[in-house]
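Field reference: sequence -> structure
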Amino acid sequence: MSVKDLKPRLYCTSMDVRNWFKHLKGLPDSTEMVLRDDQVEFFISRATAVVNMHMFHKYSADDLIQSSWAGVPVPYHSNAGNVVLYGASAGASAYTELWTVTCGTTTFTITGNLQGSLSGAAYASDFQATDISILASAWSGTPTTSDIYYVPTYDRYQAIVTVTSMLAAGYALNSEYTEEVPNASTYGVRLENGAMDLLKRLADPEGKNGLAFDTSARISGDIEPIAQSYVIDETGTDVTEYYPDRGDREGESKLADD
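Structure field:
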């Protein structure tokens, strides 16, 4: 078993979750003092499970996997130097993982949240590892010792990453912050509701408001609308009125709260 397989495979990184609320008024610029990465990953694990529950009646686990790709590098908020990392590349076998690039004056090191520390490299040389690589030409500016960049890699579709991180951020805000932080709970509820709305639409891509997370994704489940009778008018619109409390038998009236 590989070291990166010791943890469950999640659908986003802790950085994705923090980015949803890092600028929320009342929270500190950095939330490291409030939530450690392993605590954030707990909420990501919950969100990943919820995404699976909604998606797996139409999609298999393999349907949600995309060729690995690297996200945008994000500098730590208190970096002292003016170094810029423009981008990185993900290896073909990369998982969804957050890489921490720690700067020295002439060399840098890389640590993954799944795999731990990798060997470092000089800025003037290309860095090449199995799951992540950084070209020498991707660096600009002058680094200062202990400056940090975060580089995420993913093996999931962007829409899945977005929905999972929204949901996990909502869970984190509602569980860890109180009303003494202005708008934290309200924003958390908004994130949860927004994520669940998107998730339901992704899970029903053939529905009226359905969304396809990728045009090449495979649908494994039954897409035929056979569970309920329906009526189509002359324009091709579904005009059926459903009565979930009592069925749709002739002569019944719809309840006000149906």
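Note: Residues 224-228, 245-249 have pLDDT under 50 and may be disordered.
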